[in-house]
Design goal:
By secondary structure, the protein is of the alpha/beta class. Helix content is about 30%, strand content about 15%. The chain has 9 helices and 7 strands. It is globular and about 65 Å long. The two termini are about 15 Å apart.
Length: about 250
C-alpha cells in the first residue's frame, strides 16, 4: 500500500522504527491486574541461570502465572515448563494467587520428571508465591537450586512468557470462558496440543514431548542475526490530491 500510494520501499521493522521515533504508534492499554507481587518479606534469590549453558532437558524448570478470564472474574493458571524441551511439566488452575496453587503445579512437575540430573534449577520471578517458605522448602527437598529474576523480569523469564503467549494467542486460552469447568477442560486440551502436537522451531521441529524424550542435542533451526541501527526520518508527504511524491524514495 505504501508503494502504490507513495512509491516507498520499506520493511516491517523499519516502518515500526519510523513510527516509534515519531510517536505514531498506538499505545497499548496497561492491564488492570498483576500476577507478580514482589513487595514481601520473603528471601529473594539471584539469577543463577543468566550465564548457564542450558543443553539438556530437566536442567532448568521455569515457573510463571497467567490470568484466565472465566465469566466475570479472573482465575490464575500456574505453569512449570522445562526451559530446554519447552514441555509444560506441571500446571494448576487456581481462583486466587495463593501459593498453594503454585505448590500443586510444582508437585505435578516433580512427579512428571523423567531424568536423573544431579543439578537442576528452578527459575521464576520474585513473586511471593515462589519466595514463600513452603515453596522454597519443596524445591530444596527435591534438589533444586533456586534462581529468580532481578531486573526486567519479563526478559529474564522469556521462555515462560513465550509459553503463556502460545497458550493464549494460538490455543484459545485468551478467550473468555463461560464457567470454571469449561476453563479446566480447555486448559487441559490446550496443554495436550502444546506438548504433543505443536512443533517448535526451538526444538528442531519436534514437539516438546519428543524433545524432552530426546533429552539433548536438539538441532537449531535458525541463525542469530545481527541488526544494525538505521537512521530514519519522517518523510514530508505532499498533501496534493494526487497523493504521490515528486521522486520515489527508497528506505532500507
Amino acid at each position: 500500500m505504501l508503494y502504490d500510494k507513495y512509491h516507498l520501499f520499506i520493511g516491517r521493522d523499519a516502518l515500526f522504527n519510523l513510527l516509534f521515533k515519531n510517536s505514531l504508534l498506538v499505545k497499548r492499554k496497561p492491564p488492570g491486574f498483576r500476577t507478580t507481587h514482589s513487595a514481601h518479606h520473603f528471601e529473594k534469590h539471584p539469577n543463577r541461570i543468566k550465564s548457564l549453558n542450558i543443553n539438556k532437558a530437566e536442567q532448568v524448570f521455569v515457573s510463571d502465572i497467567t490470568y484466565i478470564r472465566v465469566a466475570k472474574k479472573f482465575m490464575y493458571l500456574f505453569l512449570v515448563t522445562d526451559i530446554y524441551s519447552k514441555r509444560i511439566m506441571g500446571y494448576n488452575l487456581g481462583d486466587t494467587l495463593h501459593r498453594k496453587h503454585g505448590l500443586k503445579a510444582l508437585q505435578k512437575a516433580i512427579s512428571n520428571r523423567q531424568k536423573n540430573n544431579q543439578d537442576i534449577f528452578h527459575h521464576s520471578d520474585c513473586g511471593a508465591q515462589y519466595c514463600s517458605k513452603d515453596y522454597t522448602q519443596l524445591l530444596r527437598k527435591n534438589g533444586f537450586q533456586i534462581s529468580m529474576t532481578e531486573e526486567d523480569h519479563c526478559y529474564e523469564n522469556s521462555v515462560a512468557e513465550r509459553v503463556n503467549g502460545i497458550l493464549k494467542g494460538e490455543l484459545g486460552l485468551g478467550e473468555v470462558m463461560s464457567k470454571e469447568d469449561v476453563a479446566r477442560q480447555r486448559i487441559a486440551k490446550a496443554i495436550n496440543i502444546y506438548n504433543n502436537k505443536r512443533l517448535h522451531l526451538s526444538c528442531g521441529l519436534l514437539t516438546p514431548n519428543q524433545a524432552h524424550i530426546q533429552g539433548k542435542g536438539l538441532k537449531k533451526m535458525w541463525k542469530k542475526r545481527v541488526y544494525k541501527k538505521k537512521s530514519l526520518e519522517l518523510l514530508a508527504v505532499s498533501s496534493r490530491p494526487t497523493g504521490s511524491l515528486q521522486q520515489p524514495v527508497v528506505l532500507i
